[in-house]
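Duplicate of #3305? Posting structure anyway:
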């Protein structure tokens, strides 16, 4: 399986620092290259008169200066992780909106995975802002996205959970990263289906047909939970079956869409103890 590296956005927060540590542990196991990126915008000194002529004259020099300053800051930040001395890594900065820089670089470098930190918060503004960044990266990035809770520590995966529904027969989803994780960690695979009372429940034969390449020779289990609210069903599954990684199959409809309606993002991305891998 080809490895095109792991992309890790950095914003110098404790949440980001934890995501870097997590990604380092993952890269050590997968023998992957790490690519760190910080997105920035040009800041003019307060009191600077801004007009069209001023902007046209100074923007090139200002942008170059800001790029150098931000690159030096990123390099200094990464020197705080001595484990990187034994890994292949690259540090980059990008000018522009955070989501565009992350998704654009992931596409340009064809990275295998994006690893981002997530933070639980009681602030409505922060929840909307952070949720928007994470959700938009999930939508725009061309590769899987791993969301790491702020208090999650890297540990070898022993049990990986995968949420499925009857739409999971979509053959456009790429399972390469999940296959690599199963192969490297020899983890148990736990499928869960959250079914409402009127829904047709997929049988084990459905799982075997759709995910056969992932199952051999792995030990796997299939659980059905009857619950009208998807997030409560997932919460019940995580309580009854402690797992090290929860996998969701990205689609713009069905079960995945229901989980990411307004009010449910916090439960899945910011309240979950388990890291969340979204494959697409």
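Output from current build:
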């Amino acid at each position: 399986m080809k490895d095109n590296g792991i992309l890790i956005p950095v914003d110098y927060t404790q949440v980001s620092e934890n995501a870097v540590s997590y990604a380092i542990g993952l890269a050590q196991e997968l023998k992957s290259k790490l690519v760190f990126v910080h997105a920035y915008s040009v800041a003019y000194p307060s009191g600077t008169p801004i007009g069209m002529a001023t902007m046209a004259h100074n923007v090139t020099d200002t942008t170059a200066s800001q790029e150098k300053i931000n690159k030096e800051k990123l390099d200094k930040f990464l020197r705080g992780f001595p484990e990187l001395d034994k890994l292949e890594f690259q540090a980059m900065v990008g000018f522009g909106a955070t989501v565009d820089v992350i998704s654009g670089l992931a596409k340009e470098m064809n990275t295998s995975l994006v690893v981002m930190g997530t933070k639980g918060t009681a602030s409505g503004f922060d929840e909307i802002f952070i949720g928007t960044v994470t959700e938009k990266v999930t939508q725009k990035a061309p590769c899987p996205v791993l969301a790491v809770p702020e208090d999650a520590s890297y540990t070898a995966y022993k049990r990986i959970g995968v949420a499925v529904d009857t739409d999971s027969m979509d053959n456009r989803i790429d399972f390469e990263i999940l296959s690599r994780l199963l192969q490297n960690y020899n983890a148990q695979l736990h499928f869960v289906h959250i079914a409402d009372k009127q829904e047709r429940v997929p049988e084990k034969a459905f799982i075997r047909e759709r995910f056969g390449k992932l199952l051999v020779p792995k030990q796997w289990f299939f659980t059905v939970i009857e619950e009208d609210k998807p997030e409560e069903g997932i919460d019940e599954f995580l309580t009854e079956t402690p797992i090290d990684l929860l996998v969701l199959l990205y689609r713009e409809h069905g079960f995945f869409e229901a989980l990411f309606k307004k009010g449910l993002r916090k439960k899945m991305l910011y309240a979950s103890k388990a890291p969340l891998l979204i494959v697409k």
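Confirmed duplicate; merging threads. The longest helix spans residues 52-78. The first strand starts at residue 6 and ends at 9.
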